[in-house]
Write a structure and sequence with these properties.
By secondary structure, the protein is α/β, with parallel strands linked by helices. It contains nine helices and ten strands. It has helices spanning 25-37, 59-85, 102-108, 133-143, 147-153, 159-164, 177-188, 193-227, 229-247; strands at 2-7, 10-15, 43-48, 52-54, 91-95, 98-100, 112-115, 120-121, 156-157, 170-171. The chain has a six-stranded mixed sheet with strand order 1-2-3-5-7-10, with helices on both faces. The longest helix has 35 residues, at 193-227. The chain starts with a strand and ends with a helix.
Length: 248
């Protein structure tokens, strides 16, 4: 589900879960577990296997699992994103293809983001669901003023546009992606680990304060919306539209 490799003390974690690394409860639970297993690594590179970094939430599982599944899924999504966001060592996203919705959030939770192709964006509103507090605040930290257009427009950005708004730091050729991600991670290791971790905590403190302030207020409403029959009807129609477009 998540493949782990070591490159001179830098851990490479590869999402390897189906054709597009769709985010389900099992994959999200595996993210913090994988990070814990490489806690001693000097840095982490997160990438995907196949044509996508992650095409986002497995909406079919949301519909099939119903409210009970959603109640477990949403906290797992927040926990996975926070595990990346708060990891004390350098974390670099090597975005090898589409990074959509939750996949975009996981990339944004990393310290540096390199992209080799595909599109990146927040498609939640197009699917009829709102953002939990943690993903929203991580995206606010990463995208800044561009976030409102990303959320409300529910669109996809090509790599060049993603660089222009600061969401992605560099576009690289696909065959150079891993090497460049490792190079970027190595450069971030130049600072002493405790100094890097402290600076990272300082930079992330405003986002985490917003999470603490809003989570208890907003997340119950988010859960209710994700769990509602109206939402599941929208998701079924959305999935049917995707299937129809693929067949044409």
């Amino acid at each position: 589900m998540i493949e782990t490799a070591d490159h001179a003390g830098i851990a490479v974690l590869t999402l390897a879960h189906g054709p597009v690394n769709a985010l389900d409860l099992e994959l999200l639970t595996a993210v913090p577990e994988a990070l814990a297993t490489v806690a001693g690594a000097r840095a982490v590179v997160l990438t995907g296997r196949g044509r996508a970094f992650s095409a986002g939430v497995d909406l079919k599982r949301i519909v099939e699992g119903g409210p009970e599944y959603v109640e477990r899924f949403l906290p797992a999504l927040s926990a996975a994103a926070l595990a990346l966001f708060e990891h004390p060592r350098p974390v670099v996203a090597a975005v090898n293809g589409h990074a959509l919705a939750g996949g975009c959030v996981l990339a944004a939770a990393c310290d540096a983001r390199l992209m080799a192709g595909g599109t990146i964006g927040l498609t939640e509103l197009a699917a009829g669901v709102p953002f939990p507090t943690v993903p929203l605040e991580i995206m606010r930290h990463a995208a800044g003023p561009a976030l409102e257009a990303m959320v409300l427009g529910a669109g996809r950005l090509d790599p060049g546009r993603a660089v222009a708004i600061g969401l992605v730091h560099e576009v690289v050729e696909p065959d150079r992606l891993l090497a460049e991600a490792l190079r970027r991670a190595e450069a971030l290791c130049a600072a002493p680990p405790d100094v890097y971790a402290f600076a990272k905590r300082q930079l992330r403190a405003p986002a985490l304060e917003r999470v603490r302030a809003a989570r208890d207020r907003d997340d119950p409403e988010v859960l209710a919306m994700w769990s509602s029959e109206r939402t599941h009807t929208i998701l079924r129609d959305y999935l049917a539209g995707l299937s129809k477009n693929r067949s044409q």
